[in-house]
Write a structure and sequence with these properties.
By secondary structure, the chain is α/β, with parallel strands linked by helices. It folds into two domains: about 20-35 and about 275-415, Aspartate Aminotransferase, domain 1, CATH 3.90.1150.10; about 50-275, Type I PLP-dependent aspartate aminotransferase-like (Major domain) (Aspartate Aminotransferase, domain 2, 3-Layer(aba) Sandwich). Helix content is about 45%, strand content about 15%. A seven-stranded mixed β-sheet has the order 4-10-9-8-7-5-6, with helices on both faces. α7 (about 155-165) runs parallel beside α8 (about 180-190). The protein is globular. The protein starts with a helix and ends in a 10-residue tail after the last helix. Bound molecules: D-serine. D-serine binds near residues 32, 95, 123 and 173.
């Protein structure tokens, strides 16, 4: 296949090869990224990309669905089993679509929703003002406690009682601590609100038993499938039986056309992988690596929001280091360490150059790194901070990073 690509489209072949080398030769700390298995990759690039399958198994609009029906049913069954949910919809193209579909399955435009503010670690689609979710709903946003960097559930409850939202969203994109989904469920119930939980970042940890599940406490759970869960790019919704029909109808025909069957087949593969004891070990190692990385960074004098981590994610507050988040992310990238700048709670800096850096350990754990390697990553990060304006020192660190990366092969190979 690759030889065909090489012959027919040498420019794209060459670019994919370069991206493959970039992924191999750098330390990937983007908290939302991972490396899928060769099996997931193979299913993603299959003939299923050629098939339209509007509808759901057993009720499609086009013929030729004898295989797609089996594949989608397998994906749904594996998802419900893995997460102990009544129902799964595996068709959503992305987390943003899944979140909007969850809200529109339960409430109407104009109703009040309550989610975590973006600068405090929430997602755009949790009601942030520039997102459609902040425009078509009346959005109230809760924050983390600025002094602890953690949720103050009493404050969230107080806000809920004040604004009486119809729907409360739990979940985050930059929250380094365990989320008490039971508390969110209780708060939602106390004000008569629905509870939607977005576990995009931690789905793999939940599947692997390294984070409590929101499934018993939420009406609908949404997740992307490619972060800690280590599947293809996409998203799914899990819900209680009573919402199954509404969720399916909202996704198709409400918001989407034909599902991407190549993605759904790859998701079925990933869900089978995530059901194995080895994946449970992987999920727990992600957290061990994050804790080791966090502890070493703090030894080097880095300040971490909330003083550490319980999950895959670390949020560094760089103000004491007097380095802007954007600059740090850029210089780390020059040294072969890829992370993203991020706001920190109560950030005085503008969002395009925030005070923080977000990191995650899902991808390095997939490469086989353990605590000692995570500590070495912290040492590289510290060296970069200490040589932030020294180009030759950064180039030398990059060489060391390259040698380090060669010890940890990726699961898939571009040949
Ligand atoms: N872009 C994802 C993340 O990095 O968390 C969320 O959409």
């Amino acid at each position: 296949m690759t030889t065909i690509l090489q012959r027919s489209n040498p420019d794209i072949y060459e670019l994919i090869g370069r991206e493959d080398a970039r992924q191999k030769n750098s330390i990937r700390l983007i908290a939302s990224e991972n490396y899928v298995s060769a099996a997931v990759m193979a299913a993603t690039g299959s003939c299923l990309t050629n098939k339209y399958a509007e509808g759901y198994p057993g009720k499609r609009y086009y013929q030729g669905q004898e295989i797609t029906d089996i594949i989608e049913t397998l994906a749904r069954d594996r998802a419900t089993k893995l997460f102990s949910a009544d129902h799964a919809n595996v068709q959503t193209y992305s987390g943003s679509v899944a979140n909007l579909a969850a809200y529109l399955s339960l409430i109407e435009p104009g109703d009040t929703i309550m989610g975590l503010a973006l600068p405090d670690g929430g997602h755009l689609t949790h009601g942030w003002k520039v997102s459609i979710t902040g425009k078509i709903f009346n959005s109230v946003q809760y924050s983390v406690d600025a002094s602890t960097g953690r949720f103050d559930y009493d404050q969230i409850e107080k806000l809920a009682k004040e604004h009486k939202p119809k729907l409360i969203i739990s979940g985050a994109t930059a929250y380094p601590r365990q989320i008490d989904f039971e508390a969110f469920g209780r708060i939602a119930k106390s004000v008569g609100a629905y509870h939607v939980s977005d576990i995009a970042h931690i789905a793999g940890l939940v599947a692997g038993g390294a984070h409590p599940s929101p499934v018993p406490f939420a009406d609908i759970v949404t997740t992307t499938t490619h972060k800690t869960l280590r599947g293809p790019r996409g998203a799914m919704l899990l819900c209680k039986e009573e919402y199954a029909k509404k969720v399916d109808k909202t996704v198709f025909p409400g918001m989407q056309g034909g599902p991407h069957m190549h993605t759904i087949s790859a998701l079925a593969v990933a869900l089978a992988e995530a059901s194995t004891p080895a994946f449970g070990e992987y999920a727990k190692q992600i957290v061990k690596n994050a804790k080791a990385l966090a502890a070493k960074l703090m030894e080097y004098g880095f300040e971490l929001v909330s003083g550490g981590t319980d999950n895959h994610l670390i949020l560094m507050d760089l103000r004491n280091k007097k380095i802007g988040g954007k600059k740090f992310a850029q210089v780390l990238d020059l040294a072969g360490i890829v992370a993203n700048c991020n706001t920190v709670p109560n950030d005085p800096a503008p969002p395009f150059n925030p005070s923080g850096l977000r990191m995650g350990t899902a991808a390095i754990t997939t490469r086989g790194m353990k605590e000692t390697a995570a500590e070495q990553v912290a040492a590289f990060i510290n060296q970069v901070a200490e040589n932030i304006d020294n180009e030759s020192a950064i180039a030398k660190i990059k060489e060391e990073v390259l040698a380090f990366c060669s010890q940890f092969p990726l699961p898939q190979q571009f040949v």
